[in-house]
Design goal:
Layout (H helix, E strand, L loop, with lengths): L5 H8 L6 H15 L1 E2 L10 H7 L1 E2 L1 H14 L4 E9 L9 H4 L5 E11 L2 E5 L6 H14 L3 E2 L2 E2 L23 E6 L2 H4 L8 E2 L2 E2 H24 L3
Parallel strand pairs: 1-2
Antiparallel strand pairs: 3-4, 3-8, 4-5, 6-7, 9-10
């Protein structure tokens, strides 16, 4: 079933009789599986409605959606930005485009308050077929990092602990904390989504859906890895 906006997702995915933790897990699993790891023409500035319709998003677009959904069920939630090395994306981006990515990239995860505890997670970023395919490639290569994941990544979340599919604190280069005004943040010098003076948000809009199609096709090949 396709959902047009956040309220439709909440109405269709969340059981009102469930506990807040159960509701949060249901939303987490929806974002994980129904929005495939990939890219769209709005990149980091993807509106939730477009992400739901297009069905592909990466860490920052999916984190924005996840934050919005958690707030919609009344949970305090924030999008937290950090800077990490681009090496995690090796193999996930075709070589013809990987060279364009700056050495350091802006990554975000979600902070959510559940049962009086603040939890951190980005386990919703990587859908299960992709995680399995990417980890198979890493194991075959004898690598621990690449294709957008780690060999010890998890996309499972119990609503009681931190869970990361991409972020690893030992790889964090800078911590930018909770970001509320995304548009303002994207204009700051600390935001790393820039190449040759052009923001990726602008570049991807110039590319359009046709421009991101080969990137998503490349990721689909990784999903098929057996």
């Amino acid at each position: 079933m396709a959902f047009r906006d956040v309220q439709e997702v909440v109405a269709g995915v969340v059981n009102p009789q469930d506990t807040p933790r159960q509701q949060a897990i249901a939303l987490h699993d929806f974002v994980r599986e129904q929005i495939k790891f990939g890219f769209n023409k709005y990149f980091d500035a993807t509106p939730p409605e477009y992400l739901l319709a297009f069905g592909y998003g990466h860490c920052n677009s999916k984190s924005h959606l996840m934050t919005t959904l958690l707030r919609a069920i009344g949970l305090p939630a924030y999008q937290h930005f950090v800077v990490i090395p681009k090496e995690i994306l090796r193999g996930a981006i075709p070589p013809s485009r990987y060279w364009m990515i700056p050495a350091q990239v802006s990554h975000s995860f979600v902070e959510v308050q559940l049962e009086q505890r603040w939890l951190e997670l980005d386990s919703y970023v990587i859908d299960t077929p992709y995680l399995q395919g990417a980890q198979r490639r890493l194991l075959r290569e004898g690598s621990s990092l690449g294709y957008g994941v780690r060999t010890d990544s998890t996309n499972l979340w119990d609503g009681q602990s931190n869970a990361f599919a991409q972020f690893d604190r030992q790889h964090m280069l800078e911590d930018h904390g909770r970001i509320g005004d995304l548009e303002a943040f994207f204009k700051e010098r600390r935001y790393r989504g820039v190449v040759l003076g052009l923001r990726f948000n602008t570049l991807f809009q110039m590319m359009g859906e046709a421009g991101v199609a080969p990137m998503n096709a490349h990721l689909e090949q990784i999903r098929q890895m057996r």
